[in-house]
């Protein structure tokens, strides 16, 4: 089948590459000519394991191409995916649908045959019907259906999530559109992927509800971790005992500094606003968002406490600045709260991240960016682990101690065993463990 994907950002680029891998002919459109030029040279502007190989392979065999001209790409298209950004609107937290609405108008102007218009972007309930109205108003003669096909891609494992998903959600109102969507995902039938075919509103809400639930689960175990510290329990053991219950499950029960990234923060806010506007306020999600915001700020206080109550004039080594490993994404990373707060208290920062330093350097000032973990720790008064990159999991403890001015570690990801670090002479602080 022939597919057009509007938006060469994270979701659009991954979706385009994976649909091309399925054997469909895909054109990925972006208004940023510089970005398109890079992609045409197989220069991938984001870090996602395995994505570069897919782009190179499918660009070479002709199933994937990149362009700025929507009109020529739309000729013969069976489906066009809207995969543009929906950032949280400044000031009120509502999802900003400017790019989605503009995409709908552009699509409408170029419709010449029956086409399924698919929202891949995360959008509030009711957006599909607004898109349909925009298209009808812009092009009254257009023959189309609107579908909602939310993405469930985790940064760092997006290729596998697309190729072997837990489920595919399709919201549509016609058998014709459902047939097109099933054909697009036909390669997944071989692995018996569940297909949830439902209404536009239900599909749109599924994405928000899923993300809000996971954000709540993370926040719950973080609060349990705080309780563990007060009563002498171990949050990792508590989480294991909880997770073995099939009704709960082990995933997202890892205590840490709070959630971040491109999805959870903005999606919880957008869902909160939807609930308020619909007269069904989501108190649990509201509490989750508030607790998480405060938690990230509290992490800097933990570092200060571990340093004897003051970081003034001290050098702090930061390991990991991205919101999670295997990505270069800095959006809503805990480092964006912790680093400025430490600097405001007089700390000097030396930092290292395997992939995120280029982007981080545009967001954080007066940071010394280092070539590796040990350089970041050299002559530092303490080391803080903010992101659990694999290369931080087995650092040489003796070498770490030799590099640091004082052997102080604040492990906000619970990578190391407290007994090992203390036996090595470290003053060690972690989350929810004694």
How would you concisely characterize the structure shown here?
The protein is an alpha/beta fold. Helices cover 44% and strands 14% of the residues.
Please tag this protein with its features.
six-stranded parallel sheet; N-(1-d-carboxylethyl)-l-norvaline Dehydrogenase, domain 2; globular; 44% helix; Rossmann fold; 3 domains; alpha/beta; 17 helices; 14 strands; 434 residues
Please describe the topology of this protein.
Elements: E1 2-6, H1 10-21, E2 25-29, H2 33-40, H3 51-60, E3 64-67, H4 70-74, E4 79-82, H5 98-109, E5 115-119, H6 127-138, E6 144-148, H7 158-163, E7 168-171, H8 175-184, E8 195-198, H9 200-231, H10 235-243, H11 264-277, H12 283-306, E9 315-319, H13 335-344, E10 348-352, H14 357-363, E11 367-369, H15 373-377, E12 382-385, H16 397-403, E13 408-411, H17 418-423, E14 427-429
Parallel strand pairs: 1-2, 1-4, 2-3, 4-5, 5-6, 7-8, 9-10, 9-12, 10-11, 12-13, 13-14
Helix pairs in contact: 1-3, 5-6, 9-11, 9-12, 11-12, 12-13
């Amino acid at each position: 089948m022939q597919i057009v994907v509007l938006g060469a950002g994270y979701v659009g680029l991954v979706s385009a590459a994976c649909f091309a891998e399925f054997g469909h002919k895909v054109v990925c459109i972006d208004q940023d000519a510089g970005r398109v030029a890079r992609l045409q040279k197989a220069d991938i502007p984001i870090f996602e394991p395995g994505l570069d190989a897919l782009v190179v392979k499918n660009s070479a065999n002709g199933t994937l191409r990149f362009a700025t001209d929507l009109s020529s790409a739309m000729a013969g298209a069976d489906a066009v995916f809207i995969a543009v950004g929906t950032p949280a609107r400044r000031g009120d937290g509502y999802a900003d649908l400017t790019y989605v609405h503009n995409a709908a108008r552009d699509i409408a102007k170029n419709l010449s045959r029956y086409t399924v218009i698919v929202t891949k972007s995360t959008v509030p309930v009711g957006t599909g019907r607004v898109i349909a109205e925009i298209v009808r108003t812009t092009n009254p003669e257009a023959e189309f259906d609107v579908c909602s096909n939310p993405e469930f891609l985790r940064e760092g494992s997006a290729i596998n999530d697309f190729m072997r998903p837990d489920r595919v959600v399709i919201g549509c109102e016609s058998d014709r559109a459902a047939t097109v969507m099933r054909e697009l995902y036909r390669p997944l039938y071989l692995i018996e992927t569940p297909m949830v075919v439902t209404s536009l509103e239900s599909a749109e809400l599924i994405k928000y509800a899923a993300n809000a639930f996971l954000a709540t689960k993370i926040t719950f175990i973080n609060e349990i971790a705080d309780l563990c510290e007060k009563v002498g329990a171990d949050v990792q053991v508590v989480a294991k005992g909880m997770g073995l219950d099939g009704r709960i499950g082990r995933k997202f029960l890892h205590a840490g500094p709070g959630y971040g990234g491109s999805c959870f923060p903005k999606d919880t806010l957008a869902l909160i606003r939807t609930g308020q506007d619909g007269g069904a306020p989501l108190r649990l999600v509201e509490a989750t968002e508030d607790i998480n915001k405060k938690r990230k700020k509290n992490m800097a206080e933990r570092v200060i406490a571990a340093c004897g109550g003051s970081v003034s004039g001290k050098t702090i080594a930061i390991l990991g600045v991205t919101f999670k490993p295997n990505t270069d994404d800095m959006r809503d990373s805990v480092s964006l709260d912790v680093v400025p707060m430490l600097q405001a208290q007089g700390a000097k920062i030396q930092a290292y991240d395997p992939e995120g330093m280029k982007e981080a350097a545009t967001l954080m000032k007066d940071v010394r960016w280092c070539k590796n973990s040990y350089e970041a720790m050299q002559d530092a008064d303490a080391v803080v682990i903010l992101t659990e990159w694999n290369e931080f999991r087995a650092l040489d403890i003796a070498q770490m101690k030799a590099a640091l001015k004082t052997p102080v570690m604040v492990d906000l990801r619970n990578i190391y065993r407290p007994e090992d670090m203390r036996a090595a002479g470290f003053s060690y602080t972690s989350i929810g463990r004694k």
